[in-house]
Structure formats: structure tokens, C-alpha cells
Amino acid sequence: MSTSADTAPLLSVRKLTLRFGGLTAVSEVDLSVHPGEIAAVIGPNGAGKTSLFNAITGIYEPTSGEVWLDGHDVRQALTGRVIAGWLATGLASSLLFLFIAAGVDAAWKAVVKAHAPWDFTISGAFRDLFSHFAGGNIALMFGFWLAGLAIGTLGARSVWLRSRRTPQGVALQGVARTFQNIRLFHHMGVLENVLVAMDRHLRHGSVGGGDAAKLAISGRFAQRAWLDLGLPLVALAAMVGLSWTTGDGVDDETLPSTFLILFVLTAVGWLIRIARRGALSGSSQVIEAVARQEALELLKFVGLDKRANDLAKNLAYGEQRRLEVARALATRPKLLLLDEPAAGMNPSETVDLMALVRSIRDRGVTVLLIEHHMRVVMGISDHITVLVHGKRIAHGTPEEIRRDPKVIEAYLGADDGGH
Amino acid sequence: MGSVLTKNWKQYVTLESLLLVFALLYPLFPLFDLAGEAAGLQLHLDQRLVTIFIYGILVVALNVQVGYAGLLQLGIAAFFGIGAMATGVMTVDKYPFHFGFWGALLCAPFIAAVAGTVIGAPTLRLRGDYLAIVTIGFGEVLRTVLINLENITDGPRGLNPVPDVWIPSWLRDFAGGGDAGEANLLVMYYTALLVLVAAVVVLKVIETTRVGRAFVALREDELAAACMGLDPGRIKLMAFAGGAALSGLAGCLYATNLTTTADPTNYDFNNSVMVLCCLIIGGLGSLRGALLGAAMLIGFDNVLSPLLDRAIQVAVGDASHPLARFSSWRWFLFGFALIFMMRLRPEGLFPARRVAAELHEEPEEA
């Protein structure tokens, strides 16, 4: 893909450095991957390839440098909503501190217990609360309030700062990966492994492979869970509200009784319905069925549809690797990171894998892989980056890499001589 | 032909239908009580079963946190207490709120869930042992706070009287045959049973949905789950708050059943551990196990040992010596049973298939 250099890169890693104590695993590495290409990172063992992957996917926080995806920093952006969230946390904790300073017990005594139950009004309660606060040590309470505000806001801010880059956050932006040491959910079924990765699409009802009609169905049904449970809850709330406003011991209990019976009947009806369909609502049942179909298609794509109902741990090694690929594809990534996909595979499996990686690219997913098999790397990559001791020593097409004297000296020559 | 019939027959033997058997059993309890009277025992099966139902809800709630999400929670009784205390404050005569039982049933789980979120949001980042310590601490602090907020909770005396379950007066007359006490027992029995069945049905459905899968995935490999876009913090908080809400529901029923919020020491660490023991003996992660554990342990504590005490008294005549009372021995037996269980069947009596597999990992691979 010679034109890829003209387009904007999908992934761009800028001067990424990753240090663990005194050890520098990755040192000022630059890497760009353009949409629609297959890129590879190669290098001898301990060159920092997997560390680079972990930094890209948000598992490690880079010591310095940036990771951009599709023109945005993968770290969560600082928006007004985020700041509003800090302030809301601060306000909640400031109220908590205020009540601690004023004494919850004393405040309760002044507000609730000061009157006979029948004299209690909500406006009166607020008045009493303010006069109770005003009667206390104002400076102390203001100090506590301010301390609560500061602790809450700054605490929320520091938590946010530390969790700007998370694996789930990067995954949601369209990066999926497989692992060098296979990390499947071993005690779950093969199909379930794929369904777990479709969690977000299930939540939003966006399943069915973009099929407009199916999407319309799932969209229209999307609120049904609340409707189903809403009826009993409204009936109960109406009953409570009615008996509260009419007070105790009123002769006319017709309406409350009606609503109570309505509540019990609708609640029991709801329970029977959800138990029979095995889903919390009609919409989730439809979405789940469509998602299973989609997951099966993905399993077919990697050639595992016959084993959909087996436990993941019972699959053969090569099959487990392919299941990991299917699971990663189920998140519908823009970029797929494969960490040594051919490790432990025999030559014929390796050929199949190369075909699989190509067909993933043909689905419109950009692929970045780490690999040791030179035949795989040279056979399928559009661009190759060579890492040695955490540093990028070369970057180019397979032809260029093959001829690069630095690569031959530092990697291919030395390594091949050893074999 | 026969096999088809058995298959059809078996599909109706579910947890819910077994629980519904208890609904049909209620009219027969007077017969049991009469039989008990003849043997000199006061059975009161209806009252004792209500306690078991309420603890059943609590064990199922703990199962959401410990069994599903794998969070080692040792302070479940605190949320139980929050539910009970909220019910007391919302319903007793001396406060102006007068929400009634149904209002409390609606609000108590919500309040407990808010408390769960406030406690959970900052602490769920901690792993295993540390979370356990924080939850123990929260339970102990809450007990002390409830005792010391005397103006609100009436300290060790507890708030009372918490009103009975409200039902229309014509239904009450019909249910009790004019006897208010009988009617209250019956209504409490069916309300607790209905809430338990509802909790079981909803959780059973949730186990098979997206959320249930996310729980399992998170327990198996948190990092891989996060890399697939699942937010571990959110899912854990959901389980924590959900379990707290269910405990609050159980607390509401508990206070209503006792007609008082009782001494806050009822919601202390011992209670939490008891509930955890029910869950572990029954089987982590499995609803059947949770209910069986509740029935066995709470049944042993609340039904069997008082009955055996009485039986010994009837048989021996004078059983004033502490060693002659079965209830003096019950913790000894209980501890023994627990050690045997952990030695022989660590996954519990009715474990969830997956949890059992996870616990038997080493022998399989060896």
C-alpha cells in the first residue's frame, strides 16, 4: 500500500517511553499505522514489543510520549462534564462534612423531633435546619464545608487523572488485541467468550451487523425493560403516595387497595414473563438472539462455528488463538493488535493464519502484529518496524527491512546465525 | 413415552416452583403445630420460616457480591441494618414520615444502594483482602454510629413499633378470620416469600444475560475483560450496589417482622459471618446453594436448636444444666461442620458449575 503514507495515520505513537524503575523497556519509539494496512513490529526477545502493545492498549501508563488514535489522544479528554463531575463529588462530600460539623444527631433533634409529628412541614424543616446551622459555630462549619468541597473535588480529580488511560477506554475507541499468553475466559463457552466482547453492542442494542431492519427492531424495543418493570413500580408508588397523603386511619381505602392489588398482579405477571423468556425484557431477548447470530458468524469466520458450545479451555492451542481473534473482532475494532499470533503453530496452521490476517484486513480492520516467524512477517506486512533494546532501529517495507544493514546486523544476522 | 413424560415433569422442578410449594404449605401449618403440641413442642413453623425467608434474601444478596462479582464482602449486615433502620425512621409513629410498610419497601433498597455506592465507589479498587478489611470496618463503624445517634435511632432500644404490612381491611378480615394476629402472620409470610421468589427469579434471569456473563468474565480474567471494553469498576460497583439494595430489602422485612429496628448489635460482624457461612456451605455463586445454606444454618440456629432444647427438656424433665441444653452445643457443632465442609467439599453443597471448576483447577491440570 504505497498510498497509505498520504492518508492520516490511524494509530500514531509519538516518542513513547516506558520505564520500570531503572529499566527502560521502550525508549522514544515512534510508530504510525495507516488505515487498511498490515503493520508488524519485530525484534529479538526482550526488545520491548509487548510492553509497547501494553502501553498502546492502556494497560501500562507510558512514562512519556503519546498515543493517538484517529486524530485523538487515547486518553480521556478534559471536558466540562468531567469538571462538573469533580464538582458534584465535591459538593456531595462538602454536605457530608457540613452535617458532621453540625452534628447529625443534634440537627435531627432540632428539625424532626422539635415538633409533634403532625406539625412537621417540609418548608418548616428547611427553616429549622438553617437556624440550627446558624446557631452553631459558623466559622467551624464553613471550614468543614470548604474542607469537604476541597477533598471531594481534588480526590475526584486525582482519581480521574490516574484513570484517564484505561484498557476499557482504549478498547471502546476501537482498539482490540490478543495476548501472547492466551487469555481467554477458560470456563466460559466458546460462543460466550465472543458474546462477552460484544457487551457494549448488546448494551446499546447495536447488533445485527448493521442490518437496518434488525437495528430498527432493537431500537424500538430498547426501552421495554423499563416499561415492563415501570408498571408495577408506578402502581406501588401511587399506592404509597395515596395512603401517605390521605393519612392513617382514613375510612376510604378503595384507591390504595386497588393500586396495591394492581401492583401485586403486575409484579407477579412481570416475574412470570421474565422467567419464561429468560431475559429482562422483550428487547433484550431480541438483541441477545441477534447477537448470538452475529457471534456465530464471527466463529465461522475463524473456523470455530462447530465448537461454539464447548468450553474455551477444551479447545486445541491453535483453536484458542483463533478464538482470541474472534473475540477481539467482536468488539468491532478499527485496529487489531495481534501479539505473536503464530507462536506454537505448525507450518500449515501458520499458512492458514496468514490467510486469516489478510481476510481480517479485507474486512476493513487495520492490523498491527508482533511476530517472530519471519516468513509470516515478510509475507503479509505492508510496513515493518524493528525494535532492539526498546529503540526503533528501522522502519519500512519488507524489502527495505530485508536489505537494511542495521537490521541484518542487530537482528536477522545474529538471530539467524544462532539457529 | 415415559422418558418424554419425565422430561416434561422435570422442566417444572425449578427453584421458583420449589419455593412456591411453601406458598401452598401455609394452610397445613396449623396441622403441624397441632402435631407439635401433642409432642410438647411449639413449632410455630410460619414464624420460623419467615426468618429463614428473610435470611434467604440476605444470603442471595451476598451471593451477588461474593459469588457473582468475586468481591470479598464481610460487612453485609451493615446494609441489612441500614435497610432496617431506614424502615424504622420512615414508618414509626413518632417521626412525621409515616411511609407505611410498602413505602419503606420501595425506599429502603434505594437508600441501602446509595450507601453501597458511597462505600463501594472509593473502595472497590482494592483487591481481595483489603476490601474485606474495609467492609469489616464499615460494618463495625455503622453499628457504633447507629448506637450513638441516639436521637435518630433510639440507640440500643431501637425504633418501635414498626407497623405491620398494610393490606386492605377487608382482605385482612378475610385472611385472619377476624383475628388480627393471625392475619399479620399470614401476610408477613406471603410477603417475605414473594420478595424472596422475586429476588430469585430476577437474579436467575440476570445470570444468563449480558450482565451475568460480564460477572463471570471479570472473575476469570479482569485484564482481558477490560481489554474487551468491559469496565471492571462499573461492573463491580453495580454488583456491590445491587447486593446492598437486596440486603436493604431484607432489612426492611426484618424490621417489619420484629416490629422494631432492634438493637444495632443485631447488625454486627457475627451476623455478616453467619450469612457468609450460609453462602459458603450452600455453594458460592449458586442461587440453589445460597437458599439451601440459609435454610440449613438459619434453620439449625432458629428452628432445630430451640426445638431440640425443648425436646430434651420434655424427655429429661429438668435440663437446667448448661451442658444439657442443645443450644449450648450448637456453635461447637456448627464449627465442626464448617471444618468438615472445607476439608471435603470446599465448593459447597450446590456450587455453581463454573465456581466449582475454578476451585478444582489444580487437580484437573495435574
Architecture overview:
The complex is a heterodimer of chains A (419) and B (366). Chain A is of the alpha/beta class and 419 residues long. Chain A has 3 domains: 1-76 and 366-419, Rossmann fold; 80-162, no CATH class; 190-290, no CATH class. Helices cover 55% and strands 14% of the residues of chain A. Chain A has helices spanning 49-56, 80-102, 104-111, 122-135, 138-162, 167-172, 190-197, 199-204, 212-221, 224-246, 254-277, 282-301, 317-330, 347-362, 374-380, 398-403, 405-418, and strands at 11-20, 23-33, 38-42, 64-69, 72-73, 175-177, 335-339, 366-370, 383-388, 391-396. In chain A, strand 1 (11-20) and strand 2 (23-33) form a beta hairpin. Chain A is flat and about 90 Å long. Chain B is mainly α. Chain B has one domain (44-306): ABC transporter involved in vitamin B12 uptake, BtuC (Orthogonal Bundle). In chain B, 75% of the residues lie in helices and 0% in strands. Chain B contains 18 helices and no strands. Chain B has helices at 2-11, 15-25, 29-38, 45-68, 76-91, 100-123, 128-148, 150-153, 169-176, 180-208, 210-220, 222-227, 232-258, 269-282, 287-316, 326-344, 353-359, 361-365. The chains are: A alpha/beta (419), B mainly alpha (366). The interface between A and B is large, with 66 and 54 residues.
